[in-house]
UniProtKB/TrEMBL annotation:
Sequence intervals crossing the membrane: 28-49, 55-75, 95-115, 135-155, 167-189, 201-221, 242-266, 290-313, 334-354, 360-380, 392-413, 419-438
Naturally occurring in which organism (per UniProt): Stakelama pacifica
The protein, known as: Amino acid/polyamine/organocation transporter (APC superfamily)
Cellular component GO terms, alphabetical: plasma membrane
Keywords on record: Cell membrane, Membrane, Transmembrane, Transmembrane helix
Topological relation to the membrane, as annotated: Multi-pass membrane protein
Protein's UniProt keywords contain Transmembrane helix: yes
Location of this chain's protein in the cell: Cell membrane
Length: 449
């Protein structure tokens, strides 16, 4: 994309005043949990179980621990400088407006777009499961694209529509998931299914690699960071919102993991990994339980895509205004933010058609972990004194990410080396493209000065 976007300062001031404080604390929590639960439970439970074996519920605990370490950097930075597109702000303050800040921000945006396509395909898989069409590639793509278009329409209606929709849908899905988990545990107990199997096939490397997916299940907290400037009383509420959302998801994930593990064997969980909750509901609760779970899954994944599209479009808007990524009108009218909303849904829709769930999730994990390590190092190296952060916690978060990334890369090199290659090529292209774009901008400025 090329070209520049011309906006008057008056228009920006009006838009900023309109958006500031438009998301309540409860609405922000709903947005964060909407993204996390949409991906973590319905899209990733089976893939985590495949790597971690019968101990897969412990992977969620480990993922929560690593996420809590990671959240420390974001909370400290957001408390000091809350803004829409907050991760881009963190990286620019840490590294300056250069290649590292721009590239890491793009990786974050890409991981969020990938998450949208992941959750959209999960929505389609659950919606088609009652009809036995969950493997129909064409129908999966059509339904996934339909959900992404729906998310665009909700976002185009404004912030309050997103906040209200997220709040209502999050309440429905969290309550529904809790009912499913308690009922499944009541019916199956704690000694059946995967928990009745010996852990003889357990491999430490597989368990550590599974934490990459668990971290991806919690990364929705960055949705809150990226919308920080639009949350009521952001200096006080951004950090509170992040910790509340992570806490809710820890409890929800453990309930569901134990319920699924008590109902299905590991082999069956892996076989039904794209719709494992629906598969677990049927033997434990019968046809009514199956349909109940499908409805909850469709609701959860829909709200996840709506919330994620909101956050990504805000982050891309900030990157464009910071002149870290190129932009073109492509003949469209309206504000810069409305253009980036269109680009977001186009990218998510393309990924939803091109990749299956397993590879989408793996790409998202690679991009997110690399970006996260750069955030921690940048805050540690340049900003920890400014925001009052403890260096030991920042280094511990970076080390945890590094260990998980190494294990995940090793396991994927053995099982699916192409996805590692795709991720490596994507990261190299992002850094090279960002370097070229910024250098070209510098040359233009010298020529016009």
């Amino acid at each position: 994309m090329t070209g520049e976007h011309d906006h008057s300062s008056a228009h920006r001031a009006h838009e900023g005043a309109e958006q500031q404080g438009s998301i309540s604390l409860s609405g922000a929590v709903a947005m964060g949990t909407g993204v996390m639960i949409g991906a973590g439970i319905f899209a990733l439970t089976g893939q985590i179980a495949e790597l971690a074996g019968p101990l897969f519920p412990l992977s969620f605990i480990a993922g929560a621990f690593v996420t809590a370490l990671a959240a420390y950097s974001y909370v400290k930075m957001s408390d000091a400088w809350p803004s829409s597109g907050g991760i881009a702000m963190i990286l620019q303050k840490a590294y300056g407006p250069g290649t590292i800040a721009g590239s890491a921000s793009v990786l974050m945006a890409l991981s969020m777009v990938i998450n949208e396509s992941l959750v959209a395909r999960t929505f389609a898989t659950y919606a088609l499961r009652p009809f036995g069409e969950e493997t129909n590639g064409l129908l999966l793509s059509v339904l996934a694209l339909a959900l992404i278009v729906f998310a665009y329409l909700v976002n185009a209606a404004g912030n309050r529509s997103v906040s209200t929709a997220s709040l209502v849908m999050s309440a429905i899905k969290i309550g529904g998931i809790a009912i499913f988990a308690i009922a499944a545990l009541w019916a199956s107990g704690f000694s059946g299914g995967a928990f009745g199997e010996p852990a003889t096939g357990f491999k430490g490397m597989g368990f550590v690699a599974s934490i990459a997916f668990s971290i991806l299940a919690f990364k929705g907290f960055t949705t809150i960071t990226n919308s920080g400037g639009e949350i009521v009383d952001p200096h006080r509420n951004v950090g509170r919102t992040i910790m509340i959302a992570i806490g809710i998801c820890v409890v929800t994930y453990l309930l569901v993991a134990v319920a699924v593990g008590s109902s299905l064997s590991i082999e069956r969980i892996v076989e039904a990994r794209d719709y494992s909750l629906a598969a677990a509901a049927e033997p434990a609760l019968g046809p009514a339980g199956f349909w109940f779970t499908v409805v909850i899954a469709v609701t959860a994944t829909a709200s996840g895509v709506v919330a994620s599209v909101f956050a990504v479009s805000r982050m891309l808007t900030m990157l464009t205004e910071m002149k870290l990524i190129p932009h073109s009108h492509f003949g469209m009218k309206g504000s810069l933010r409305s253009h980036l909303l269109v680009y977001t849904v186009v990218m998510a829709g393309t990924l939803a058609v091109l990749f299956d769930l397993t590879r989408i999730a793996a790409l998202g994990a690679f991009f997110y972990l690399v970006m996260d390590m750069l955030v921690h190092w940048g805050v540690f190296r340049h900003l920890r004194r400014d925001v009052g952060a403890r260096g030991a916690i920042l280094l511990a978060a970076m080390a945890a990410d590094g260990v998980v990334l190494a294990a995940f890369s090793w396991v994927k090199l053995k099982s699916d080396p192409m996805v590692v290659l795709y991720a490596a090529i994507g990261i190299v292209l992002v850094f090279a493209g960002e370097h070229f774009f910024l250098r070209r901008g510098e040359r233009r400025e010298r020529e016009t000065s």
